Predict the 3D structure of the following.
Amino acid sequence: MLPERSFVEWGESLSYDPRDGIIPALEFISESHFQYIDQLFITTRRAITLAMNLSAMMIGSLRRRDPRVSANRKYLFQLATFADQADAKNINKIPWLGEGASGMILRGPTGCSKTHSCDAFLRLIPQCIEHGPHDECGWISLKQLVYLRVPMPSDASRKGLLINIIWKLDEALGTDYASGITARMTQEVLLVEVLKLLTVHRCSLLVLEEVQERNVQAQILGSEFANVFLKFLNAGIPLVLVGNPLSFDHIMSFTQDRRRLTSGGLFDFTPAYDHRDEEWEQDLVPGVWGWSLLPHPDEAVPNLAQVLYERTGGIPALLSLYRRECMVEALRARASQVTVKHMDAAFWSPSMCGMHDLVEAYRNKDLNALNQRYTDQPVAYLEEIWARERRMRAPA
């Protein structure tokens, strides 16, 4: 069983600084070492809430599927028996496991720490636990799959997703289930096979990452993907969808799908609205900008949170990138600290120049620019988020 932690305990556990691990063993610092900043994780209230919800989903699922309960053991045989007769006509008759599991959606534009926040939680738990004989649970041995992370397929097919799941499951457990996949297997048979494997190995969290509009865009395909997602939940497997808000339009417009797939939480990951955002001003800026491999602290910068917002648009990934480039500029100048001069040079570095248009659009809340220049920016979603922020900040 996963350990349950308090809010404060999760806050302490999630935080990660590579300087405490890998970096102290380095004999000298080079530019490549600055890339360790990508591993830095600054704990925020949202990250802690996410971790607590994920933990609750997993623990609740494991309790409901307790293998010592005869009905739960019986469900495995029902699923295996159904796999032999599954087809397009009866696929909706797949056996359910009680009330099913919870779903969660993490949505937001790219670079806003969706995957990074999920990673911070998953690195605290083992992916696989090997169990010996247990008569009461009904197994001689078991490789328990604690969680499984799977990328959505680039070909936008459900069969591609199911095959990806089997490949990743083999990779995590050291099994070879993929060798049993044949070209003749129908999508329905493959779905039931995936559900059976995830259930047999007691998977307590399935994370489908980077769900993009191109993966689930078509109206019919969107409905079919939603049905697959719900079947995971019906089998008792908690599901987390991580991706662009554009891809969730169908799910969010259908009440039943929305309720089931967000019962564990709907988390919005967006750039800071402005430099006064609590998470930006109190967590990200002190944490990311305080990270350095240079011998001396930075030159003081008045209104630092505002300066950094104006140069990154409040996008967390760009804040880390900009910090890295500032340290690179300082090292190239053989300086012992980051100065304002290095910050100015870093903003015009090749790594930052490609993001200037995006930064400007976010800084100015320019929906037209986002809509005209980019195909993956969730303009309607951002318009709604920004309107809500304006209402919250309006004087009473």
Remarks:
- The first strand starts at residue 103 and ends at 107.
- The chain has 18 helices and seven strands.
- The beta strands are 103-107, 128-131, 142-145, 148-151, 206-211, 239-243, 265-268.
- The chain has a mean pLDDT of 90.
